[in-house]
Structures are given as structure tokens and as C-alpha cells.
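To the team - zinc ion complex, inputs and output below.
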Amino acid sequence: MEIFRLGSAAPAVRDIRGRLAKLGLLEAPRPGEPACYDDACERAVRTFQQQRGLSVDGRVGPETYRALEEASWQLGDRVLHYAVARPLVGDDVAALQRRLLDLGFDVGRCDGIFGARTDSALREFQTNWGLNPDGTFGPASMRAVRQLSRAVVGGKPGHLREHEALHQAGRRLSGKTVIVDPGHGAGDAGWVVGSLREADLVLDLAQRIEGRLAAAGANAFPTRSADGNPDVHDRAAFANAADADLFLSLHVDGAPSPRCHGVATYYFGTTDDAGSAVGERLAELVQNEVVARTDLLDCGTHAKTWEALRLTRMPAVRLEIGYLTNPSDATRLVQPAFRDTVAEAVLVAVQRLYLPAEEDPGTGQLRIPA
Ligand SMILES: [Zn+2]
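Output:
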């Protein structure tokens, strides 16, 4: 799709402004008035992106447009059900998931996607409340949900389930399936500075991580080969089909200013705490281990709703390892020994995720024999 930005005057801008207005971020367009993407519109887009955990660039591309569409649905606006081929997605689905979760039904996490787990949780709820368990969330189920007191909610049942699954998985890496996802690929090099290409660097790093995971007994699968470049939906679908335990996405960052530098790690999360608790923990471990073993600036961990993090059903993190556009970071990235150190840090983070708290050795301590 076209990317809308400051100055755009396409007919779609009216729709974008209308959606922002509905969310209370912008004044409603007056009938007949030409709709243009002005400063106020850009500010509203930035605010929206910030609120939704998207990359904040003030432009409306596919991801921001998708989020605008999703944000326009409120619980009760439409009948919800499990459409296998093309699941319903929206804030109304997320609201339903949160209610079911609060009532004790296992929807997985509140990702706003009406999938198989939401379907079975809804049917269970319907059975428990004497409704027809048809998996369709229409007026009758809506009434039942509304009648139930909100007083019973508390804690984060989704988080507890995720921690329990982690505990059940056991401490050993052997037998675990980890998907290693080198960003970009054929036809999309990512950031390029001179002869350095992000796609090549992350592929090399991915191979180092896979080698270590395999040596530790884990099943490590890459999402792409050297000359492949599946889209984000295919990468996530691959991880889901493999029923993977973890998903590690690898990127190198870049910026218009050569002064930006450092490492950051991202996990699936939203401002209302509906994200992945284990993803957040893994992001912290990866970030801390990388920072402890390298001299990259610590840019922290952050919750994002990027597609790769949201569509993957297992805990997922995205590592942005340094800025290729920063000469000092680039000098490090080009060294194989540095990439080895990063791979080691990632392996240690994955191992630490599965260790019980009392056995966790602390950041920078664990050494995994070759
Ligand atoms: Zn990238």
C-alpha cells in the first residue's frame, strides 16, 4: 500500500483523519472540507503509534493502518466468531479475550486475534453459563459477559499460565525448539552502510546462535536461507507450525544521525499489560547479557506490537544489535569475534530463562561449555 505522510492529499487521508477523530486524537473533519495530512494529523498519528506500541514515525504505512482499523472496533460492534481462513482481528476481540481471561478461561494472550484458543475458551464460557456453545459471540453472550461482575477480576491469569508453561517446560535446552529469525533477506538488505549489509550480518549472527543452540541439544530452525526472504506472516506461521518454544528475531538498527548507537531488545506488549510476560523476561535477559558482555550502549527493553512479535504464539523477542549507521557500533559488528560474543550472550539468556529463580547465576556469570 501507499505510505501516507505529511503533505499527502489522497482520498484515503480523509479516512485516516476520520479514524483518528473517532479515537479522540484529532478534530473531526467537517463535511466538504478538503482532508489533508497536515501537522495536526501527523501529531495525532505519532500519539496513536506511541499508544499502540508501534514504531513512531508519524506516517501511515500498512502496520499503522492495520492498527487504525483494529482500533475502530469496540466490543458489541459486530458478531465475533472463529473464521479459520481469515481470523477476525480488532480491539473488540482483545476486549473479549480480556473478559474471558478475567473470568478464568484460557485464551492464551490478549493479542486481539480471534484464533482457535479464543474459540475454545468462548465455547467453554458459553457451556458454563448455559448458553448454546456455538463459539459465536453475539447478543446473548454479550449480555452474559456484561452481567458478570467485574469485581471478580484481579491478578494476571494470562501471565500466570505463561509462567506455569515455562516451569513445566523444564530447565534443559535439549528438546526445545527455538526459531531464529534473521531479519530481511533477498531483495531487502535492511540498513546498508558501504559494503556492510544488515541482512548479511544478522544471517551470520543467526548461524552462530543456531550452532550454539544445536550444541546444547535444542532444535534450532532459521526462518530463512541466505537467498530467501519470507514475509513476516510466513515467518510467524513457520514458528507457529513448528510449535516452537521461543522466537528470536535478529536485526541491526540504523538512523539518519550517525550519533545514534546502542542495543535494544523488544517483546510483545501493549500499554494495558496484555503482552507476553515471558517474552518480557527473555528480552531483559538477552539485553542484560549482551550489555554485560559487550560495550554497546544499553538502550533498554521495550514493549511493541510489531507483527512478528504479535503473530507468533510463543514468547518472542527482537534484538536490534547496534546501529550500522554509527561508526563505532559498525566497527564492532564487522568483527566475527564480536558476533560470537553476542551469540554466546543470546544462548546464555535462553538458558537462564529456563532456570528456576534460585539457580539463576545472575547476569554475565553463566558459561556454557562448548
Ligand atoms: Zn532490520
